[in-house]
Amino acid sequence: MARKKLDETRQGQGDDASSRRTPMREFSRSLPMSLLRAREAVMRQFRPSLRNHGLTEQQWRILRALTAVDEIEVTELARVAFLLGPSLSRILRDLEARALIERKAAENDGRRAVVSISAKGLKLIEAVAPTSEAIYAEITRRYGARKLAELHEMLGALEASLAGMGSADDAEVETDE
Amino acid sequence: MARKKLDETRQGQGDDASSRRTPMREFSRSLPMSLLRAREAVMRQFRPSLRNHGLTEQQWRILRALTAVDEIEVTELARVAFLLGPSLSRILRDLEARALIERKAAENDGRRAVVSISAKGLKLIEAVAPTSEAIYAEITRRYGARKLAELHEMLGALEASLAGMGSADDAEVETDE
DNA sequence: GGGAGATGATTAACATGTTAAGTGAATTCC
DNA sequence: GGAATTCACTTAACATGTTAATCATCTCCC
């Protein structure tokens, strides 16, 4: 796969001092890229099945999260399903329109909304779950259960490592508030 | 009506004879979720810096990939930068409008387009690279270089494990294999 | 009480992910 | 040599990611 030269040499325009460029890592060794590719390799397995049931990955995440609780506030659901507020808002609107979930206002706080899965939503989950688990089992079989557990642990440790790392923002725009 | 229990859907037991539902993994142990969270933890570090330079993550990926070659065809660029064709088309259109890249038709094939980074694009890369590398160095320091290498290897192995796994699509619609 | 500020949720605006369809140029096959 | 097919993008359409702004409560504090 093309171990091409790392030099510059664009067309003749401006042979400036760009020969002193900060050398960067090889692309394939980028951590975000590795994580992205691994995740895509996994999701590629699940997407067709979800699609056959009319669900996107995120919609599935939400319904899955809702099966684990009786009801849950939107903010907490966003945290659990790892979705940003705006995305969640849109998806909940759609899921509610499809009657897969139910929504009501919190009793003691008019701002908060409480969400729960509907009977129809539960049926859908039950329809998808077997295939989903079968795929997961096959992945586990291929990769190895022990290795999978180890990977989980290392990913968790990575998250933890970066937890308190304040964005080392360059060109920091003066926060003169 | 949302009448569900499942408050105790921890893995382990889960033999709910009455519901007979396929017990599913705890949410946090989902592999796609772990990968997503780890990746987000990493990208959260880079995004502010990129943003300060007017670049999105994907635009940065493309420019980064272009610095490694003299020129490259669009399809190959999509493979290297791990972007789908439609996304790449849009981004290239924007980057070309901003004069960060240049595009021309292949000489021997009118279908193919050849892309290269411009002098302006290179300047931008050089402006971002130091901060980007500093962040990466800090991540490596926190997580550990050895552990990072091991993680890379495990992610690559995961990809490889799933390489030939044909979508175990339920409700399979007659494929030709 | 009441106003300033905080908070939960949504909306807005733009960029990308994802799948399907379209377009124009090469290749195949008869 | 030309129709059919394949190929390399590109557009289209819809869903989500991401940041900022908005809106309606709620809380705090005087």
Task: Report on the architecture of this protein.
The structure is a homodimer of 177-residue chains. The first copy, chain A, is mostly helical. Chain A has a single domain (30-153), classed as Winged helix-like DNA-binding domain superfamily/Winged helix DNA-binding domain (Arc Repressor Mutant, subunit A). Helices cover 55% and strands 7% of the residues of chain A. Chain A contains six helices and three strands; from the N terminus they run H-H-E-H-H-E-E-H-H. The first copy, chain A, has helices at 31-52, 57-67, 74-81, 85-97, 119-143, 145-162, and strands at 72-73, 101-105, 113-117. Chain A has a three-stranded antiparallel beta sheet with strand order 1-3-2. In chain A, helix 1 (31-52) packs across helix 5 (119-143). Chain A is globular and about 50 Å long. Chain A starts with 30 loop residues before the first helix and ends in a 15-residue tail after the last helix. The relative contact order of chain A is 0.08. Residues 1-19 and 171-177 of chain A have low confidence and may be disordered. Chains A and B meet through helix 1, helix 2, helix 5 and helix 6 of A and helix 1, helix 2, helix 3, helix 5 and helix 6 of B. The structure holds a DNA duplex (30 and 30 nucleotides).
